[in-house]
């Protein structure tokens, strides 16, 4: 009986805590509604103007990003072009690749993400034709993604180890990894909405002729 009484007391305390939280949320909502009710026409006009200016700034950002090549997954053909790209954009995902199956898997995911995250520039460069960059950035395993913010390499995604250790990972898994590195805005207003058929996206295919070279 003492144990049952202890449990009953515990549930009562928990119930009071939950009710307290609910009451605090309700009070906050009531305050916000009351504040909105007190707004006059001039206040609403200020809010509308502020929101309009925010929308204009975002539209200008989008235009600038698109003019720099954002929204597409493109290839860099010369090492000097790499430096121009990372200086022009605040956020860059650069895929160091070679012509093999793992890199082609990464290509398909990056091409998809480039369309959705126009706040970030997505590019690729052939590692074997970029010896200076590969050496400077210590690129050994391919594919490797260099995650660059404000012209500095901030993080790497090397191979598929951080993506489940298999070539059958979904685009969402890579998206979450890039968001964790803050090189994309995961649910930000700059990102384009996903279509309903893109929730789980895998690019694994069953071609027996494709080799799997991870170095």
Automatic annotation (TrEMBL):
Protein keywords: Coiled coil
Gene3D superfamilies cross-referenced by the UniProt entry: Glutaredoxin (3.40.30.10)
Residue ranges, annotated region (Disordered): 192-215
Alphabetical list of CDD domains matching this protein: Phd_like_TxnDC9
Bias-annotated ranges (Polar residues): 192-209
SUPFAM superfamilies cross-referenced by the UniProt entry: Thioredoxin-like (SSF52833)
Domain Thioredoxin residues, every copy: 76-159
Coiled coil is among the record's keywords: yes
Keyword Coiled coil: yes
Coiled coil: 22-64
InterPro entries xref list: Thioredoxin-like_sf (IPR036249), Thioredoxin_domain (IPR013766)
UniProt superkingdom: Eukaryota
UniProt protein name: Thioredoxin domain-containing protein
């Amino acid at each position: 009986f003492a144990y049952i009484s202890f449990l009953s007391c515990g549930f009562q305390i928990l119930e009071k805590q939950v009710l307290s939280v609910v009451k605090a949320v309700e009070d906050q909502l009531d305050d916000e509604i009351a504040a909105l009710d007190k707004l006059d026409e001039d206040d609403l006009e200020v809010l509308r103007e502020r929101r309009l200016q925010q929308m204009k700034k975002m539209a200008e950002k989008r235009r600038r990003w698109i003019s720099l090549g954002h929204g597409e997954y493109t290839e860099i053909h010369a090492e000097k072009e790499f430096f121009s790209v990372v200086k022009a954009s605040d956020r860059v995902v650069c895929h160091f690749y070679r012509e093999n199956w793992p890199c082609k898997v990464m290509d398909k995911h990056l091409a998809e993400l480039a369309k959705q995250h126009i706040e970030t520039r997505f590019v690729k460069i052939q590692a074997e034709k970029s010896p200076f960059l590969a050496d400077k950035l210590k690129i050994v395993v391919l594919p490797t993604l260099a995650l660059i913010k404000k012209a500095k390499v901030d993080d790497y995604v090397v191979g598929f180890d951080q993506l489940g250790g298999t070539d059958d990972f979904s685009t969402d898994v890579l998206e979450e990894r890039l968001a964790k590195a803050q090189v994309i805005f995961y649910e930000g207003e700059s990102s384009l909405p996903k279509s309903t058929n893109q929730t789980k996206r895998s690019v694994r295919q069953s071609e027996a002729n494709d080799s799997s070279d991870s170095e």
